């Protein structure tokens, strides 16, 4: 006869609970067998991915169902927007900072009273890549001159620079034929900044690059220099360029600070129509990380330091930035 209970093949009964692959207390690291541990880790990652996708789908459906009443999208947490507050962060309308900047050693450059004149030199006996990098840097910074150093100490170069009206000295250091450091010294009285340099790309190594740069004075863009130290470094870079950009050349030099790494890019922009603008990278490009800021001109022995990057003391939190 016809029974009322559910038949073994019948699917209308209560749904079987979904088998959870990994219980909440499970830890892959407890598995002793290396191959099994690796296999289980991959499975665990796969499950995490599935759960994340399912949650994303569910949220999207909820948003579509609510339409205009849907809550605004959550802003993802990043290291930048979770940054630890720095008490030296500068308010754009700060009168004290405005006064400092009107009277500091860079003020004459911003008032166009002084025209920058830059000497670019290298560590002793540079190799081919560093030489090419210096030559390309000289085409980016107007009124700059390249000098190859042969055994002459920096302390002896600085008085010669001052006597010849150079306003800044840039030294490119190298290690195993690769440019790895930059010293920027403002003359005659400092300050001097030491940077670690990485990710150097010369012109020929940049894909889809534009034609060689012209001799027009570029615009300078400084991004994200928010603290007092950041302001000082930003002004040092800005003072390398004359303050009357020739917009007809459409060239832009950008110093973009992100997580205390300063990314340098050199572009030309092209107006395709009234609304569309294209950009071509001209190169070179490089990344800098500030190591120290000295008060006077370069002096490794008796120099007075305003700021030194001490990794063990300063980098205790990943969300703390200094520039």
TrEMBL record:
<dbReference type="GO" id="GO:0000460">
    <property type="term" value="P:maturation of 5.8S rRNA"/>
</dbReference>
<dbReference type="Pfam" id="PF04427">
    <property type="entry name" value="Brix"/>
</dbReference>
<feature type="compositionally biased region" description="Basic and acidic residues">
    <location>
        <begin position="62"/>
        <end position="71"/>
    </location>
</feature>
<feature type="domain" description="Brix">
    <location>
        <begin position="116"/>
        <end position="299"/>
    </location>
</feature>
<keyword id="KW-0698">rRNA processing</keyword>
<dbReference type="GO" id="GO:0030687">
    <property type="term" value="C:preribosome, large subunit precursor"/>
</dbReference>
<keyword id="KW-0690">Ribosome biogenesis</keyword>
<dbReference type="InterPro" id="IPR044281">
    <property type="entry name" value="IMP4/RPF1"/>
</dbReference>
<feature type="region of interest" description="Disordered">
    <location>
        <begin position="52"/>
        <end position="74"/>
    </location>
</feature>
<comment type="function">
    <text>May be required for ribosome biogenesis.</text>
</comment>
<dbReference type="GO" id="GO:0000470">
    <property type="term" value="P:maturation of LSU-rRNA"/>
</dbReference>
<dbReference type="InterPro" id="IPR007109">
    <property type="entry name" value="Brix"/>
</dbReference>
<dbReference type="GO" id="GO:0005730">
    <property type="term" value="C:nucleolus"/>
</dbReference>
<feature type="region of interest" description="Disordered">
    <location>
        <begin position="1"/>
        <end position="22"/>
    </location>
</feature>
<dbReference type="GO" id="GO:0042134">
    <property type="term" value="F:rRNA primary transcript binding"/>
</dbReference>
<protein>
    <recommendedName>
        <fullName>Ribosome production factor 1</fullName>
    </recommendedName>
</protein>
